[in-house]
Structure to design on (256 residues):
């Protein structure tokens, strides 16, 4: 069984005092978590402080985005070495909100992943179809293209260092999660794709998270699926109790 990875995407939420409080509370509740990997992805200005709070715990730090250049005249952007210098080990890339509001394409996602890998960050590549795409019967084409183009030109060794999060856009922030069957269908599709491109060994070890309205109420039924290697959690990661409950669901299942 692959080790589950539970990541909290705080998006554009939390001031510094609020972020410090949430990180402190999570450290208290799940800081010694052992059987699942846990990552907090606060906004950029909070990374350092949150990192300081969790550094002597088992909780890891991640960012929500990065730019592909290493440094220079790119006002407002944040580079991979900056992220590692404040303790990040993970970075979300190609979140659907970045694709929708900030013009991210599979090509720019690919460049960001390259920068992340160069500096030893684990990219969490987000893919997923919109409701219109699903209803038009093009889910498979959309997700396949996002994975293929997002991963274009990477070697199997590089791909092995990544994580993919399947996040159907219609499930993000809507309270309408994909059913375990729907998620498993797409995870299997992605895993088959990885298998055909990089081999069975890589595909069997590769972690694919599900994201989209994961809550303490539905975490168990989703995470108990062998095909679902963890969760990328938005709204429910903003409160310590609900995020901790999701983490504990993952932990319990790792003993099952
Ligand atoms: C997300 O934004 O990655 C996400 C899954 O959000 P939510 O859990 O709020 O649907």
């Amino acid at each position: 069984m692959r080790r589950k990875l539970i990541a909290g995407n705080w998006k554009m939420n939390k001031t510094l005092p609020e972020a410090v409080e949430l990180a402190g509370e999570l450290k208290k509740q799940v800081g010694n978590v052992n059987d699942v990997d846990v990552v907090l992805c606060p906004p950029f200005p909070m990374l350092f402080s949150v990192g300081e709070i969790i550094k002597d715990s088992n909780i890891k730090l991640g960012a929500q985005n990065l730019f592909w250049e290493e440094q220079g005249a790119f006002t407002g952007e944040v580079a991979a070495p900056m992220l590692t210098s404040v303790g990040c080990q993970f970075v979300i890339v190609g979140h659907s909100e970045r694709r929708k509001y900030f013009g991210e394409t599979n090509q720019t996602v690919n460049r960001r992943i390259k920068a992340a890998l160069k500096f030893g960050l684990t990219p969490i590549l987000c893919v997923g179809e919109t409701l219109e795409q699903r209803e038009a019967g093009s889910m498979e084409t959309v997700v396949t293209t996002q994975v293929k183009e997002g991963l274009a030109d990477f070697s199997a060794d590089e791909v092995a260092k990544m994580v993919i999060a399947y996040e159907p856009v219609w499930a993000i922030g809507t309270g309408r999660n994909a059913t375990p069957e729907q998620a498993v269908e797409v995870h299997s599709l992605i895993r088959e794709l990885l298998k055909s491109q990089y081999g069975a060994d890589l595909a069997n070890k590769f972690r694919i998270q599900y994201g989209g309205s994961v809550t303490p109420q539905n975490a168990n039924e989703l995470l108990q699926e062998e095909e679902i290697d963890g969760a990328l959690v938005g709204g429910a990661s903003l409160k310590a109790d609900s995020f901790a409950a999701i983490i504990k669901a993952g932990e319990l299942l790792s003993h099952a």
About this structure: The pocket of phosphoenolpyruvate is lined by residues 9, 167, 172-173, 211-214, 232-236 (CB under 6 Å). Strands lie at 5-9, 37-41, 59-63, 90-93, 122-127, 163-166, 207-211, 230-233. The mean pLDDT is 97. The chain has one domain: 5-254.
